[in-house]
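Re: export button greyed out
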Amino acid sequence: MSRIRATYLVACDAHAAQDRADAIRVEQSVEMPLAGVHDRRILEDIVGQVESVEPAGDGRFRIVIGLASATARPGIAQLMNMLYGNTSLHADVELLDADFPDEVAAGFAGPRHGVSGLRRLTGVGAGPITCTALKPQGSSVEVLAGLCHDFASAGIHIIKDDHGLSDQAYSPFIQRLRACQAAVRRANAGRGAREGEGSLYAPSLAGTPRQVYEQARLSREEGVKIVLVAPMLLGLPVFEELVAEHLGPECAVLAHPAMGGGARIAPPLLFGKLFRMLGADAVIFTGYGGRFAYTRERCRDIAEAARAPLHDMKPAMPVPAGGMKLERVDELVDFYGPDTMLLIGGDLLIAGEQLLARGREFAEKVASRG
Amino acid sequence: MSRIRATYLVACDAHAAQDRADAIRVEQSVEMPLAGVHDRRILEDIVGQVESVEPAGDGRFRIVIGLASATARPGIAQLMNMLYGNTSLHADVELLDADFPDEVAAGFAGPRHGVSGLRRLTGVGAGPITCTALKPQGSSVEVLAGLCHDFASAGIHIIKDDHGLSDQAYSPFIQRLRACQAAVRRANAGRGAREGEGSLYAPSLAGTPRQVYEQARLSREEGVKIVLVAPMLLGLPVFEELVAEHLGPECAVLAHPAMGGGARIAPPLLFGKLFRMLGADAVIFTGYGGRFAYTRERCRDIAEAARAPLHDMKPAMPVPAGGMKLERVDELVDFYGPDTMLLIGGDLLIAGEQLLARGREFAEKVASRG
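Workaround output, generated via the alternate export path:
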């Protein structure tokens, strides 16, 4: 019987590690005392197996459990349930990684565009892709569309909604969608960009499934080529269904980490692997040196997970963000490499009147590294 | 302008606490340097406000931020985004509580049945309601339906699917639904229970939104009166839409904590308040003294949150679970009080041949406390 290899990091005493492993293999499979399980097939094929227990430093243990693939379907809801459902309630257990047999991975399509598709979409043959965000929350549609026009005129490749923009009264989704998409078109025309080579506007889709699918339909109608979604806010099963059934094959996906609760599911697994399996073409994460405390090592792990070979899935593009500054472009490109999207928001917006010039500086600085 | 009061628990040095509060109020509102925000209305009405910063012991600070209600809509996805979206990525920040102004709470219906509705459904006028679970994972439909018949014959009020049961090949949802519902009906008739007074089967709904809504439709067709859902596995927005649009007014909801990742959103808030706001009539949580490390104090807080006055919403019934034992019934009733559902699964299932007798013991022991 095929098994998923799930790796947990457990903070516990050395003498308790084996017992913790035994508890996890039961909790994440039959979830009842084995003394009450009399069916031999269930004991052999369904109950989780402890594959290894090893010290991981800092009083923690790396525990690998083999989970029966047959229990972990269908879909991402049940996969997460078996990987981490009840065990997430133990504050001292982190879900560190998971390796899936091909038959489980086959249930997930991965990015439809990936790195090469994003290069086609943006016309960036080599080097990093640039991205910025429409802020602040509370701005009117007119203000946001004006920013969008400036950023597109500056030549920034992807202009995304701030993930806080939803369908608020001061900026209704449909009006913002139409105004920003029109602004980008005008700016692209103004720069003489050829069809399919100008800047792209990425609206943020959020709400209940019905609302999100309607937003996806409207976005397709308006010719949107890339959308922003926060899978942990929508729910992973909504993300799964959105990509598979509602976005259409042409539209790329930029995944936002909001509600990712970094500390309990390891970010390289959640953002680099799981979001990608569900179809994220690019994954935003909080880069070192910004407003968040991720280390360089963690950031490298996320970026590598997004691009590493994974069954026959396309690589996704890593997007370090969260307080990145224009002055760091060279350092970021050196660190993350060319198959990267650089997202700078606030550090362009503080330029005020000089926004267009600062946006151009960003675009040109990155282009020089192509 | 109306504001939500969000309370965070932050582990930091005393001299850094005010700066952390300032960072959170910006991160959870405009998410950009305030130097770049020139619109006075946004600065006054939209940017978060620090309401208080107080030591909370153990090197932690209790920080209360006023978040503009206008930013946190529509729906639960955007509410969670503004409460904890990016800040969840800081491993040292817990979302401890949130108080909502009436205009925000009005967007959420709360339990449709609540404590009194569950009493009507089960015919238990006073005292706790009993609940058990169909296990183990990997069992065939026939085995599960057989267990269901035994538990119903024993007089246990609610018999729920193990939350690990989904739509696996060895136990397809629709077959399990029909077989278990039929088994409960047969057992109720065998006990001479009047219509609407016998045991209830609660199928577990899981998958993508489309799959879950179809499962809800099938459940209604089969006359199901209560379902089990794990809101954090489905995604809170799916839970929101499921209750509002797909379950029908007659069907009660038992919420499961899987993937609740207890340590980062305080369980009394997540299970006791937010699940309830979205329509959970009863909320399962891991009780002290079982397989999980919740303290008595935490359990009391969850139970109180579920039943405390909350705008004009019905109270929900707390359901301590996760390794509860028959021998503890009296202690649990003393601790949680009569408006409680007691969920015992594995400790009945280990009885094997004696299952029916042990189930009866559970039912009678609890009834004697009515």
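Chain A has 15 helices and twelve strands. The button fix ships in the next patch.
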